[in-house]
Each structure stands twice: as C-alpha cells, then as structure tokens.
Amino acid sequence: MIKIFSKSYSTNKTIKIYSLKPFTKNQNHLIGNKANSLLKLFRYGFDIPDSLILDFAFFTYFKKSNKIPSELIYKILKENLTNKLAVRSSCSLEDSYNESYAGSFKTQLNVSNKYSEVEKAIEQCYQSLLDFQMNKRSNERAHHQNSHACMGIIIQSMITPKISGILFTCPSVNPDENHYQVEYCFGYGDQLTGSYLSGNSITLDKKTGKLVQQRGNISISEKDKDCLWKLSKKLEGQFDFPQDAEFVISNEDNKIFFIQSRPITAFNYTPEYIIKKENEKLKKIFVKGINSYGISPILSASNISEFFSIAVPLGYSIFKYIFTGTNSEIGAYNIGRSELGYKTITSEEQTQLFLTIGDKARTNLQIHSLVYCLQGIVKEFYLKNFVNDYLKSINNDPTKGNYPQFVVYIQNPSKEDCNSKFKKDGLEIYRVYSKFIKNILDYKIPSIIKSIPEVLRKNDNYYKNDITDYNNKINKNNNEFFIKDKNGFLLISKELDLTQLIDKYYELLTYLRNFLGVKYVIIARIAFLSSYIVKDKLVKLFRTFPDKLFNIKDKIHIDNSMFQINQYFNILLANENCPKEFECPNEINYLNNIKTDPLDLKELRQIFGHLGSLEISQPRLAELEDEILLKLIKDKKIDPNENLNLGANWLSRFKKQFKKLGLNSSEEFKDFFSWVHYAKVFMTLRETMKFELLKIIYLIKIIVKEIADRKNLGDLIYFLEYDEIEHCISHTNKFRLLAMKRKAYFNGCRNVEVDKVIMNDKASNIRIKNLTIDRSDGIYKPVLGTTIYHGEAEGICLTVRNTYEYYHKLIKYREDGITNIIGVFSGMEPAYFNLKEFKGIITEHGGYLAHAATIARENNIPYITNINIEKFQDGQYIVFDTLNNQIIYRQ
User: Fold this and answer.
1) Within this chain, do residues 758 and 813 fall inside the same structural domain, yes or no?
2) Same domain, residue pair 8 and 122
3) Looking at the structure, do residues 138 and 166 belong to the same domain, yes or no?
4) DSSP H stretches of helix in 91-160
5) Hey, how many other C-beta atoms are within 10 angstroms of the C-beta on 53?
6) I want to staple 94 with a disulfide (CB 3.0 to 4.6 A). Which of 101, 515, 519, 592 is the partner?
C-alpha cells in the first residue's frame, strides 16, 4: 500500500490521493526524489513497506505556522500502519543524480504510532532542513538551490529486520567491474549507513549470480543471495541509472523489502587498478610503435603539460580535435606544417600524436618527430636516420625528452654535421635543409608578418560578432547569442534552444581547426625554429669566441653552459623591438597603469575575461569571485620592464665585437640578427595567438556551461569528450554515468605518479605515490585501518562522539582559524552537516557503501575506517597513508 497526502489551500484540508495514475510520472518536484523513487519501486513491482507520503505543501504550511495540521496526524493514525513507524525525509535536494546529501536530513526509526510521537518525528524532519538552510557553510554547498528547498515526508510501517543492507547495482570501487555489491548487518540498517558497524559484504557476478567475494562473519543463505542477485538485475533493468538501494529481510517471513533507492552519485578507483589499466594502455602503444616503425616510442609530458596540468577529457579532446583532427578530418598541425614545407603525417598518426597516461597529457615523440620531416626527405630514410637516432639520444638522457624542440630535433644542420651524420647522403640532406630555411627566411616569414594584422582583425571581429552588450539589447528578435551583462559576464540568450547551442559549438570548433589553430601552429613553429637557430648560432659563437664576445677568459665546456646561453638569448630578445600591433593586451601593464581606486573589476573582466589555460575546465578571470580576483591581481602586480635592459652593456659590446670580427659577412652568421629579430617577433606573436585562441575557447566554455546547466550535469560535462556533448542531450543519464566514472578515474590517478618521460625499457613508469613525512618535529606512530577512499590528507584532529561535541568543537575550530580539519567520528549522525569542508574522515566502523563513504567519494575526501578512535585527541596532527591502510599521528 502506498498513498500520498497533500495540503489543499483552496479548502484548507488534507487530501488523500488513492489513484495510482499520478504515479506514472515523476513527482519529485512535489514530494522529493526519495519519495519519487519509492513510487517507482512500487510501480515496478518491488516489495516496499506500507507507506504514506506527505507532499511539499505541508512543509510550506509548517514554515508559515510552525505547526503540523492536526487533521493530518489523525488521518495518518487511521491508516492501519504498524505500531512502530519509520519517518524519513524526502528533501528536494537529496538523492539527485549529482549529489545524495547522504545523512544530511533526519530519518527516525521505531517511532510509536501515537499522535505526539508522529507529530514530533515530522517536525524534526522539517527542522533538519531549516537548520541546514540556516547554516552558512551548507548554503555555500547547495548554492542558490538551498534557500528554495522543500521537504517531503515518508511514513512507513516498521519492518522488524532479520538483516538490513545496502545494495549497489554497480561497484562503488572500480565500477568497470561486472559485479553487484551488497553490505549487510543484523538488525537495523542505520548502524550500517551511519558507520556504527563495519558490516559484512558479498560481491556477486552480474551474469551468473555466483559469489565473487565475501567479507565478515555473518552468513547469508544461498536462497537470499540468489534473491538479492535477481532483485539487483531487476533494479538495473527498471532504473535508467545505477542504484544505491536500502533493503531489509523481514524477521517474520524472510521477505525482502526495499526501503528506498537512489542514483549512485560517486565512484572511486584503487591505485592498483589504475596502474594495471594504464600499463595495459602503455603496452598497446609500445607494441604498435615497434610494429609500425621498428623502434619503441617515447612518451613525454613536454610543454603540453603547461596547457593541461590535468588532461580533463573535454578540454583535452577539444585541443586534440583542433590540432590533430580525427580519422576523417585533418588537424591544424598537419595543415600548418605542410604550409611551411613539412610533410604531412597520416590520419592515424595525427590521432596518436597526443595521449594521456594517468591524468596527464603526453606527446608521442616517435610521431612528433615525424612532423619535422621535410618534403624532400623520404619517410623511411627519416625514420632510420633521424627518428631512430633521436629516440636513442633520449633513452640515454631522458631529460632531453622534456623540451625536444630545443634539444634534440635536427632543424638547421651545418654542412659538416650532415656529412658526418649522413655520409654519402650528407650533401643532399644539407641542400634540402638549406633550401627549406632560405624559403622560411626569404618568403614565409615576410608573408606571415604581412598577414598578421588581418588575422588579428578577423579573429577579433569573429569573437565579437555574436556578443551583444546587455545595455544595447533592442528586442528579442535580434538573434543575440552571447549577452554581456552589466558586470562584464558573458551569458547565453535564453531564447536559444539546445540545437542552436550545439550548432554554434561545432561552428567555433571548426573555425579553430580550419583557421585560427592553423595560424597558431605556423607561428609557434617559426617561433621555436627561429629561437633554435639563434641559440644554435650562440652556441657556436660561445665555443669559438668565448673571450671576445662573452668576456669569458676560462674555457668552459659548452655542455655545462646552456644556462648561460639561455641568459644571453633572453637578453637579445628583451632588447629587440616588436611591432606594437602584434602584441596582445598586457594584463600586468594594465594593472600597473590603472588609475581607478578601487580597481575596476568590471573593466578587467571585460578585457581579460577569457584569460586562462587551454584546459576548458579551469576557471578564467571572468569567472573568479571578486576577492579571489583581487588577490590574484595583487600577486601579479609587478614591474614588467624590470628585465628589459638586463645585460644591455653586454649586448652593446657584443654587437661591436661581432662587427669587428666580420661575422656579419660570414656564411654561418650573416643572418644572425635577422633571426634574433624574428625570434622576438614570433615568440611575441605566439603569446598573442594563444590569447586569441583563448577568446574563442572562452565562448565554447560559455556554451558548454549552459548545456550543463540545462541538463543538470554540473562539472561532469568536463569529463565528456568533445563529440559526446551532442549525444548527451538525448541520452543524458548514459553519458552522466560515463562522466562519473571518468571523473573517479581521474581522481584515482592522483594517487599514482608517472615518469615525465616514459620509455618501454622502464618497468615502473607508473607506481603508487610514496608518502614522505617530516619526522623532525615529533614522534609519529601508525594505526592500522581500512581505506575506503584513497587520497592525500593531513591536518588537525577533531574528535566527535555526539552531536553536541560536533557543533561546539567545529565552531571553536573555525574561530581559531583552523581549516585543515581531520574529522574523527564514532559514527555519522544526520546532523553532521558541512562534512565537505573536512580534509579527511576517520570512523570507528564503516564500509564502502555507508553514508560516510558516499560523502567521501562525492567530495573527494580521503577516508579510513575500522580505526580505534580512543587513540586520538583534539589538536593532534594526523597524516593519512591510505595506500598502506593506516593513519599516522604525531604524539
């Protein structure tokens, strides 16, 4: 039996809804997600306790009058429920796809079926939401939704349980595995969900129902196991998303009742699983490289990691789409390099150019080297004589793989170098390179420089074309796309539908791949090439004239002096002029020259709002809160000219000696100062073009955020790939699940470390991070437990055994300015809100499916359980060693 009660404001009476017709559609906007799931369970034929549901109207009435209608209590008492009741919250916030709010609101068991007890239990459920709304920190957690939250109530006949449990239709840990998870205990389930018991667990194979793993000393009958397996399959089939369901096995008739079911909101992966999967990925890459090119590839973090400190799928896949294309579409790398005179690589090669190992971006240097192959050199010859030698040199010195464009690539060899390295082919190779460099210097560079003003104008117009200032909006038929509000924030016009958003999203991606990305590739390549040539010539000058040009009397071996060469290079570029129209707006100059006080943040956002990395998931200036932005500005406000005249005296002497020695007329050095000038121009242009790229990527991010808001995806959208955005609109929950798993995987990658340069002959390219503790400030002792959620955490212990302690101690810690708090709990009471702000969680008991585990997974908080908390005192310093299942505390 299940019935809904509603408060009618027209008749001021309680209305009982008997008909099941309203149950055929979601009622979560009237009764909350938990109650709505109960209706689904009932409709799908699962056994549930006899239940009454109170809709949101009663909560609204309670807020206004501070009382429960007596008519409602009398109607509940007449409903023939058992002598003992369970009164459960069904808040509009909890049990959503994004966040469970596990344990945040009141649930009371064994409530006497009497007027005063039922009334009190309902009031306490309502009060738990009002207390939550009053709390500032929880307000931050739920943002604006919190103030509009409502509370429904579920009142159920109390089932006397032989066994209570939690069932996950998808493993909470390593969710790619094909299992159902069940945790259970004797008696009531609040001991299990509240981490007062560690419980017992079984893992069942999804296909066969066979027992995969069992933990604990409470046995479950084969009949119950089989029944739980069948019910799990049914849950998985009926709900469109993996479920976290609470059940009881009745003591009277051994019947399995479901109390509630909600979407699983978070997963996690163990470091061992991550290492296994990443090594499998590496093995395939190495085998493929050897089969294709006869030598194992090398993977380097190189300078791509500056754009992607963490290679979140959406931003990284957009980057790859722009620059390396797809199997059917050529990327900007291929287009730009071929325009300069390099050979194109195959479509398969371009998609394999950039990879991820762990959560970091990697460049496949084997393929990367191929993009330097010139048109006049046969690929097989290049592989044998360039790539093979190139990879061997990195094998001998892995640091050369970090920035290979300056260290390893053959870019402008001398005649002697070519004859020495390529023997009979030396002269032909020298001819090809000389012709290429001359073409770059005489034709390509002047042509590119001439075209740059038009490129910058075109991109600026393209960027501004769809942006309408809010104050200039004329009417709704203006087809505005991006609207700049009065504070300089970009918003999407609400008149646009999802199809229009997707069309604009792909239009911007195509523009970047076909036009702006190509220009960026060309400019960046010439910036690095010209810089390399300048440094190469500096090295030769340093070797030949150390005293005359560099005022160095002692002979210094050149291999030990690259740092000095870089210094001279920087001096040369710092004192070289660059056309002002080629430079992007300088935020530091702007900050130094701004006259307004206080600082005009609105103007700053409007000019530099798009600034950030190429990683689309990272915040940009326009998205930062005022106080964060002001701090960032304060930290950045420096003198941009402090290094401009560094070594000017040396440079003046260098130029005089250069002329005196007649080097400007020699074949080797005649174009030296031309290359210096172009290195300055193109290094400046490289930053300018990145600035222009970020303007368009900023527009893409605004669209992505709008899609995420409309489909209730939040930051999960950043864990989809660029071409999945379109499909997630019609299959939201399928892609939500995919994104949740990817997010968990990326969080799991933080517990492993990966070599910056990865080579096949290294057995441990990937390994679990080692914990290092500075033991100089005291004696540290370990306490063993069970890791539920991995991660790094350290901080000050706050021990809690009841609600009173929790409130008063947490307030005191806040007053004392302690922010790195480690919560040590005997169990997790529903009143323990704000758990998100803890750096780590320790409980005396617990399991993978308890509320504490859900909170830890959702908020990325390291969690260890089965710890004897008597050993801990407030104020102790604690370090989490989750990899070794232990807490280390300072005595």
Assistant:
1) no
2) yes
3) no
4) 115-134, 136-142
5) 26
6) 101
Q: In CATH, what number is assigned to the domain containing residue 222?
A: 3.30.470.20
In sequence order, what E strands does 543-620 have?
Answer: none
Q: Which two tokens stand for residue 248?
A: 């009881």
Residue type for 883, please?
A: L
Nearest C-alpha neighbor of 459 from the set 700, 699, 701, 695: 695
**What contacts 628, CB < 8 A, 6 or more positions away?**
none
What phi-psi label fits residue 520: left (phi over 0), alpha (psi between -120 and 50 degrees) or beta?
alpha
Higher pLDDT, 603 or 271: 271
User: Are residues 663 and 621 part of one domain?
Assistant: yes
Last residue in a domain, options 210, 234, 263: 263
> pLDDT tier at 20 (50, 70, 90 boundaries)?
very low
Burial 693-731 (b: 16+ CB within 10 A, else e): bbbbbbbbbbbbbbbbeebebeebbbbbbbebbbebeee
Burial (CB < 10 A; 0-12, 13-18, 19+), residue 9, is exposed
pLDDT in tens, 435-446: 999 999 999 999
> What is the reported pLDDT for 866?
92
| Residue 471 Cα to chain centre, angstroms | 35
Per-residue model confidence as pLDDT tens digits over 300-329: 987 787 788 889 999 999 999 999 999 889
Question: What does the pLDDT read at residue 139?
Answer: 43
596 shares its domain with 616: yes
Task: Please state the domain count of the chain.
Answer: 5
353: in domain:
yes
pLDDT computed for residue 136 by the predictor:
47
* Angle made by CA atoms 401, 410, 431, in degrees to the nearest 5: 170
Q: What Å distances lie between residue 607 and 268, 482, 488, 586, CA to CA?
A: 40, 16, 9, 10
Per-residue pLDDT band for 428 (boundaries 50, 70, 90) equals: very high
**CA 232 to each of CA 43, 182, 203, 207, 740: distance values in angstroms, whole numbers, following the listed order:** 16, 10, 12, 11, 21
Contacts of residue 659, Cβ cutoff 8 Å, sequence gap at least 6:
none
Query: In terms of DSSP H, where are the helices of 750-877?
Result: 803-815, 851-859
Mean pLDDT of the chain: 87
Report pLDDT for 555: 60
Phi-psi region of 598 (alpha: psi -120 to 50; beta: other; left: phi over 0): beta
What is the C-alpha end-to-end distance of the chain, expressed in Å? 57
Q: Are 151 and 219 part of one and the same domain?
A: no
Whether residue 169 sits in one domain with residue 61? no
For 876-886, write each residue's pLDDT tens digit.
Answer: 999 999 999 99
Residues 633 and 560 in one domain: yes
Evaluate if residue 740 carries a pLDDT over 60.
yes
Q: Is residue 812 part of a domain?
A: yes
Among residues 157, 188, 208, the one where a domain terminates is 157
What is the C-alpha separation between 348 and 362, in angstroms, rounded? Answer: 17
- Which of the residue ranges 186-190, 355-359, 562-566 has the most confident prediction, judged by mean pLDDT? 355-359
Domain that residue 811 falls in: 775-890
Handedness of CA 378, 380, 386, 390 (dihedral sign): positive
Region of poorest pLDDT, from 63-72, 644-653, 686-695? 644-653
What distance in Å separates the CA atoms of residue 163 and residue 148, rounded to the nearest whole number? 37
Model confidence at 456, pLDDT cuts 50, 70, 90, reads: very high
Q: What is the DSSP letter of 339?
A: H
pLDDT tens per residue across span 262-277: 999 999 999 999 999 9
In this structure, is residue 448 part of a structural domain? yes
The mean pLDDT of 517-526, rounded to a whole number, is: 96
Q: In the structure encoding, which two tokens stand for residue 520, read together?
A: 């960026």
- H or E element in which residue 263 lies: strand 256-263
Is 428 inside a domain boundary? no
* 656 C-beta neighbours (distance < 10 Å), count: 11
Q: Is the peptide bond before 598 cis (omega within 30 degrees of 0)?
A: yes
